[in-house]
Task: structure prediction
Amino acid sequence: MPQNVETPAETQPTAQSAVTEAQTSKRTASFMVGGARISDPGNHTRKVYFLEGAEELNLENYYFDIPVVYNPVVKKWINYFLSRGRTYFEIYSERGGRYVPLLAKILEDNGLPHDLIYLAMAESGFQTKAKSYARAVGLWQFIPSTGKLYGLKMDWYIDERRDPVKSTMAASRYLKKLYDDYSDWEIAAAAYNAGEGRVNRAIRHSKTDDFWSLTKRRYLKAETRNYVPKIMALAIIGKNLNSFGFENIEFHGPLDYAEIEVPGKTDLVALAEALKVDVEDIYYLNPELLRWYIPPYMEKYRLKVPAGTEVVYEECCREKDFTASAFQRYKPGVATTIAQVAKKFRIQPSVLEDLNGVPAHKYVAKNQEVILPFREGQNIKEAMYADLYERPRRHARAQMTYKKQIKMAKAKGEKIASPKEYYTVQKGDTLWTVSKKTGTPLNVLINSNLHVVEGRMIRQGDRIAVR
Result:
């Protein structure tokens, strides 16, 4: 395949350059904003891949800057987005008009293929607040540990995984690292989804580093086996909208904003009122901000505001004090500790420590006021605090229950010393149903088969000791 030297990287994308790119893309209805434009494959700025065997699709564009193939699994995903998933594709694409020009610019500045935007599309549908059952968040669906590893700040006040600029810069570093490790975009994408450890084990056990060969083994989860084909299907459709009947997609307008510098602990509600803008516009442009005031530990914060608002800020507000002060107060009915108040309101103890200047273990007297981080007039059950009250999804709750069950059985210490009878797990079996079928106490069953059950739930075909 033809390839050329990469373009020099810049350090920061500009909002205006992204807007210009989006406006140009918008005039080309057959092409989703942000994807690689390859009009002359022989002179493209990076490696180019031709989609072979897809002549039946009669596409406008067969060239990509990531590997894309047309096989039965990719075809299945294309058919999904043309039928049951059609509405999802339309919503993702419309939303992409808002963020993709900026994402593509950052990818380019970091020397990465533009068509990796379809990885973000597969991850989140270009929704900054997207959250998975595994606690992955944002456009690029970083889990907490990986987000922190790549420099994204997460605490009670802020979650930079939701920041389209910072999260894309972090994703660029991570994707570059994965490609450097594997020298293969298909395996790199699989590792992005499943984690390097799982992919490395799959490669080791299967004795192959070819993604399509790995999909024929059982070492990768179905989610990962489908993940790469899904990205490819999105890329094929996204770069050939007319060919698939998506010529009427109404892309959202690209992000167009200015920035102002505000102090830590700035009351965003009061500031928005002074600027005569809707506070929801502030949160829309700054999705990383979780609460009603800027984190108090920050000396300054570069706040995105609607374009033109920076002029209003200079005229009316730069010299005004918008320090948050409209805090709710709570008076405990009995003497209690700050930590206990934090638990009552599901707040991190450190937040109350900072607000009240009292260590978490210290008692406050009956009816002594405790400052809470909620704004006067706010309902603490509103959307801003949904994270304090959300329950884990069903799968996550089942995993938590399972782990507790294993821990309890290990503590009991009952175990079959020399097993003489085994049971082969059937489809639909759980530890509890096997215990009932065989008459083996649940704790004995678990403790006698820890080598099978400790790391995962039982599966069809497992052979477990019951006598």
